[in-house]
Amino acid sequence: MRVPLSWLREYIDFDLSADELAGLFSLRSQEVDGIQRLGVLDGEVVVGEVVEFGPHPNADRLSVAKVDLGGREVQIVAGAPNPYPGARVPVVLPGSTMADGKKLKKAKLRGLESYGMMMSERELGISGEHGGILLLDGGYEVGRPLADYFPVGETVLELDVNPNRPDLWGVIGVARELAAILKTEFRTPEPRLVTGGSPTEDYTLRVEAPDLCPRYDLRRVSGVTPGGRVPLWMRRRIHAAGMRPVNAVVDATNYVMLETGQPIHAFDAAKVRGGIVVRRGRGGEKMTMLDGHTRTLDKEMLVIADEERGLVVAGVMGAEDAEVSDETTDVLIEVATFAGRNIMETSQRLGLRTDASGRFERGLDPNMVSYAMDRVAALICGTSGGRVAPDTLSHYPEPVGSWEVPMRLERAELLLGMTVEKDEAAERLGLLGCQVRGEDGRLVANVPTFRRDLEREADLIEEVGRLVGLENVPEVLPGVPLPGGLTPSQKKLRTLRRLLADLGLHEAVTYPFGPDRWKRSLGPGNGDAAPLELRNPLSAEASNLRPSLLPGLLDAAARNRHFGARGGALFEVGHVFETREQPEGMREYALRYRLTGETGLDAEVPAALLMGVEEKTRVAGLLAGTVRPAAWNASAGTAGFFEAKGVVERLVPDARFGPGDEPFLHPGRSAAVLVGDAEVGWVGELHPETAEKFDLAGWPVAAFELDLGAVEPDPEPRFRPFVNVPAVAMDLAVVVNRDVTVGAMLDEIGALGSPMLAETRVFDVYEGEQVPEGKKSVALGFTFQAEETLTDRAVKQELDSVSDRLRAAFGAEVRGG
Amino acid sequence: MCYHSRSMTAAGRIEELRAEALSAVASADTTGELESARVKYLGRSAELTEIKKSIRDLAPEDRKTVGAASNRATKEIEDALAGRLDRLSAAEREERLRSEALDVTLPGTPYPRGSLHPSLRIIDEVVDFFVGLGYRVAEGPEVETDYYNFTALNIPPGHPARTMQDTFFLDEGLVLRTHTSPVQIRTMLSQEPPVYVVCPGRTYRRDSDPTHTPMFNQIEGLAVDEGLSLSHLKGTLAAMARQVFGEGVKVRLRPSYFQFTEPSVELDVSCFNCGGADPNCKVCRGAGWLEMLGAGMVDPAVLEEVGYDSERYTGFAFGMGPDRMAMARYGIPDLRLFFEGDLRFLRQF
Questions:
Q1: A-B C-beta contacts closer than 8 Å
Q2: pTM of the prediction?
Q3: Contact between A15 and A253 (Cβ < 8 Å)
Q4: Which end of chain A has less neighbouring CB within 10 Å, N or C?
Q5: Given a cut of 70, is residue A699 above it in pLDDT?
C-alpha cells in the first residue's frame, strides 16, 4: 500500500518527518518498504503567466518564454512547445530541490539565461504525463504559490501490509492505525450527497450466488457530465498512490478504494440491460476484458452480469461492454463484498491480479459498503455534476455484527513477558476501534467488523504488545529442563562431512530437481519405481525429483569444467526421492491422510505408504579430472575407480565390493558396495555414454553413492592387546591367471585363519613381459606376529602354507623361488 | 755404556716421534688424515709401539726412563688426537649439514583440503548453540503433505497465506515443503511438552530471481513449555545472534504476521559490521539493522491441533535463513552462488 503523506495528513495530525514516521510504523505496525518522493521536495513553485513564447534563436528544439510571476517578469527556456502567451503555468524557482535530489540553478541554455523551469505534470508528481507543460486554468492566481492549491511535492510511504490487515489497504485505515500508535485522534470525511437523481429501481438486482456474495449494493448517479476529469488534487493523489487516472467516474471509484480499501465498480447504466445479476460463470462463457484479453470463465467464478451477458468477473476485472466511457452520463455504482477465497482462486485461475482482487481476497468488511457508497457517490456528484438516486438496491441478507473478545491481563503478561497496565491496554484497543469494558479483572473488547483478524485473546494481546512497544519486552534466557544433544546419527553426519572435507572433497548443495536428461541418462537402474515429478516446475528443465545425488553433481562438474577447472572433487549429503507404489484402493486413504493428517479407519497402514514417496538421505562423492594437482615433489592424482573406492573404504570400514550393475557406470570399473549381504551403495567410473550426456566426455570421472545408515566414518574403537615381541615382515610374489581377482586371493588367505598373520598388504600387481601371456604377478607383503619371538622356521612354514593355499585355489606359482 | 747409549737413543727417538706425531696431528685436515696419523704413530706397528714392546729387553735401569717417556709421549699424542678429532668432526658435521640445506621456501608436500558448504557451516554453528542450551535437532521429509505443511499450521485450504508461499506441488496432497515448520508439527505430535527443538533443512518455493532461489536452507526452532513468553524468545534469539555475529550486537523486535504464531514478530540484529555508524556500510547498506528472522508465540490453534493444552502450555517458534546469514557473515553478494556446485565458490569455505 502506497500512502501519500499529504493524503494521510487530511485525516490525522502528526509531527514526524517521513523517516521518523517510517521507523515508527515499522516498529509498531507494518514494515515500511521504502519512502518515495515526487515533485518538488523543497523550494518554491509559483503560478506564472506566459507573456511571450517563441523559438530559441540557437536551438531548434527549445523555446523561450517570458513569464510574469506576478509583478516580475523572467525569461525561461523550455523544451516543450505547448505554452502560449496568456497561458498560466507552474514555474519552479531556482534554488528548489527536485524529487531526485537535484537542486535547480539559474542556467544558461544555448546562450540564453533561464530562470527556473516551467513544469510538466510528471515533474510536479501529478501523473506520469511529460508531453508538455501543465497548463493551469484561470482559477489559479498569477504570482501565488501553487502550494496554496495543492502540494507541489509528495512523500509516499510504501507499506508492506500483512495479509491479515485488509483495513490497512486504505488511507483511512492507516490513519486509524497511526492514531493508535500516537494516542491521538483521526477524522474521516463526511460525504455530502447531491440527491434528486433518477431512481436505481429502474433496474433490478438479483443475487443468484449468495454464498459467494455476502453483500451487494447498487446505486445510481445520473446527470453526470460526460468526459469529465477529476480535479488536480485528486489526480495527484491517485497517481502518488500508484494508480493511473482514467476518467472522472473511474477515478472517483479508485480514489475511494485507496481511501477506504473497498474496491468499487461503476457501470454505464445506459448499457446495462434490465438489471444486475450476480451469478456463477457458465461453462465456456467468454469475456473480453478491459486489458483486451478474452478469457474463458468456469462455473466456480463469480460473474456480475446483466440479463443478457457477463459484465465483470466479480472482484477482478470488468469487460469492455458496460464500462464507463467519455460518453457516460448515467452510472450504476457497485459496492460489494465477495467471498475472499473464491476471488483468490478465480484470480489465480485467470492469472490476473488487480488492485481490487488483491483487496477482496483478504476478505473485506461488508459494513464498509455503505460508507464507501456514500463517499463515491458524493465524489462523483462533486466532480462531475451528477445527482444521486434516492434509493439503493441492497443484498445483505445476513448482516455481520461486532463480537466480543475477552482478554486477561495476566495472560497478556505471560505471553508478552512484560508488565501490561490495564488502562493502557484498554486505551490502545479503544483507539483501534474496539469498545472496551473492564469485567472481572479482565478486559472485554467489542471488536469492530473491519478487524476480522481480532478473534481471540492472543490476537488482542498482540495488538497491545506491539502498540505499547516490543522494545519493552526484556531479554530472558529460559532454563531448558532437558539435556540437549545430537543423536548418534546426527553426530555421525557431522563427522562424515568433516572427514570428506579433510579428504579434499568440497561440499556442494545442489537442486534436487532437474531436466528429463537426469532420468533418461541414468537409466532405469534405481529400481522399477516411477520418478517423482513436480506438477508446476519453474521450467520443463526442472521437473524431475532426483532418485540419486549423482546427476546434480555431474551437472556441477560440467559447469566447473566449462569455467576452466582442471578437475575437482565434490560431495553432497541430501535427500533422494522415489515413488512408492500404493496398494490398490488406498488412494482415498492416502488423500485423506495428506489433506487432513488422519491415517484413516485402518490405523495399521503406515504413514509412509500413504505418502506414496520413498525419501532417503544419501551421501555421494564425485571425482572428476585432476583431483590433486601435481606438485614439485608429488605427481597429480586423477579421478579413477580406485580413488573413489579409497574414499568409500574410509567411509565404510567393513565394506565389501561385489559386481556392479548400475547402467550409468562403466561395466568393468564399477562395484556394488556391500555391508554383510546388504547392498548399501555403488562406486565406479562413469559410463562413457553417461559422461557424454552430461557434457563430461573425455574427462575421467568416478563417483560413489552410499546410504547414510551404512556409513561409519569414525567407528567406536575397541582395544586389542599387543605384545612387545618384534614382528617379522615377509614378501611373496605369485603368478596367477589374469582373471583371478585379488579379492578372492585375500579371501583365501584370510580363510587360513593363521594366528600369526597380523597383516596382509598388496604392494604390486604386474602384467607384462616378465610374466607369461594371460598371467599376472601379484606381490603380497605379510606381517607375522606372535606372543613369542618367531623362528625363521615357523615363519617359513606359515608362508609356505599361504603359497600352498594359493596354489591349490588358483594354481598360483611362486615367483623368483 | 752401550745400554746407556741405547737408552739415550731410545729416549731421543721417542722425543722425535712425539714431536713428529704432534705436528702430523696438528696438520691433519680431515678425520681421515687424523686416522692415518693415529695408525702411523700409535698403531700396532707404529715405531713408538715397537719401542714400547722392546722395553722389556732394555737394561733394568733404562726400562723405567724409556717406559715413562714413551707413556708420556703416547698420552700426549692421544690427547692431541682426541682434541683434533673433536674439532675436525665438528667442522665436518657442519659442512655436511651445510651441504644438506634445502630451499625451505619450496611448498610442503600437499595434503588435500576440501571445504564445507557456507550455509551448512552456519547451520552447524547455530545448531551447536541451541544444543548447548538443551535443544535437540529434529528432522523431517522434504516432500510433505498438504496437511503438515499448511493446515496443521493454521493455514487452511483457501487461506491467503498459502499464496504467499509459492508452492511446488507433486501428486495430489503432496508438496515440497515451503518451510521446516512441518517438522515442528511432527515433533509435537510425537511427544508431550516440554519441547525444545531446532529443525534445520532445505525448503522450496517456486520463486527465482536475483535474490530468491527455488531452494533455500532454513533453521526453525520451537520451544513449548509452561510459562514461556515473548521475553524468552527475545532472550534466546539475542544470545544466538551474539553467538553468530559477535558479543556486541543488539536485537530488536518488530511486529509481523505469521499464521502459526500470535503475537508474531520479526527480529533484527544490529549491524555487526558498522553498528549503524556507517551510512555506506556494505553489510546493512546504512540501515544499521539486519533483518534476521521471523518468530512469534505459537498460535493456540496450532497447540490445540497437536493435542496440547494451550492454556497450560505456551511456546515460541522462530525461523531463520542460514543462506542469508552466510551472505552477511562471509560477505557473499549473490544467493544463487550457493547452489551451483561451483568450485571457485566452494573452495573459499
A1: 291
A2: 0.86
A3: no
A4: C
A5: yes
